[in-house]
Amino acid sequence: MKNKINIIIICFCVLLVGGLCLFLIINHKEEKISDALKFKNEFESYNGLKYSDIDKEIIDVVINEDNPMIYKTGKEILDVLENENAFVFFGYSTCAFTRNAIEPLLEAAKEENVSKIYYVDIKDMRDEYKYAGTLIPEKIKDGTNAYYDIIDFLKKELEEYYVPDSNGNLYDTGVKRLNSPTFISVSDGKLVKIYDDIIGNEDDYYKKLDSEAQEKLKNNYIEVIKSI
Predict the structure, then answer these.
(1) By C-alpha distance, which of 139, 135, 61 is closest to 96?
(2) Strand segments (E) across the chain
(3) What pTM was estimated for this model as a whole?
(4) What is the pLDDT of residues 11-44, one digit of tens each?
(5) Residue 35 included in any domain
(6) In this structure, what are the phi and psi dihedrals at residue 174, rounded to the nearest 5 degrees?
(7) Distance CA 166, CA 162 (A)
(8) CB count in 10 Å sphere of residue 88
(9) What is the domain count for the chain?
(10) Helix 145-154 / helix 74-83 crossing angle, nearest 10 deg
(11) Are 150 and 77 in contact (CB under 8 A)?
(12) Which residues are within 8 A (CB) of 67 and not within 5 positions of it... i.e. 6 or more apart?
């Protein structure tokens, strides 16, 4: 009788542990799918719309439901930069350059079987400057603490931040700038490779890139992917 009770207890424990593991696996999968769908829905929600401040249409994008994008806040990504071998994409959904970049990036990820790219929305993270009639632009908005920590991590590879006056003349702010978009690979707490060139049609930055330009951009992203 005692042996039967022990067997029942053991079976119950096995089923309980198995059920818990199954729950965790399913829950983790749903979280990944949720991020992928969130990313798709966020970017595609602007298709067919115009910018409110300029008479330009927002670039349409088509994003597969099965994409590798995982959302991270600025604070969360700092832990990734220091401790993971990872790919990180900085940008934001209404940025014309980011919208031109996202399809080539996802194609590169698919070709190279990348299952995870961390995505950080930097629209409201960065500091802002404006031309104030002097050689030194005026700071009108502070960046977040996380943003400045990201800048410190990447600063050797980032370019200076310039702002234009009404005639298009550029003035150096004296600080570094995280471009939207920027794609990086990190390993062992160090930056391995970065691609942050702003790509767009020179005659109209709000137009979608042609297939040749998209292919070149995709290949640049593949170089980052192959760096680790």
Answers:
(1) 61
(2) 69-71, 86-91, 117-121, 128-130, 138-141, 160-164, 170-176, 182-187, 190-195
(3) 0.84
(4) 454 445 444 444 444 444 444 458 999 999 999 9
(5) yes
(6) 85, 5
(7) 13
(8) 24
(9) 1
(10) 30
(11) yes
(12) 36, 39, 40, 106, 109
With vertex at residue 74, the alpha carbon angle to CA 79 and CA 123, rounded to the nearest 5 degrees, is: 160
Q: Is 188 helix (H, G, I), strand (E, B) or coil?
A: coil
- Whether 13 is in a domain gets the answer yes
Tokens of 131: 């031309």
* Residue linked to tokens 């234009």: 164
Per DSSP, helices labelled H in 51-171 are: 74-83, 96-111, 145-154
Distances (CA, A) of 41 to 85, 109, 117: 27, 19, 17
Residue 102 identity: I
Closest CA to 51 of 119, 89, 99: 99
Q: What tokens were used for 199?
A: 């790509």
Q: For residue 85, what is the domain's CATH number?
A: 3.40.30.10
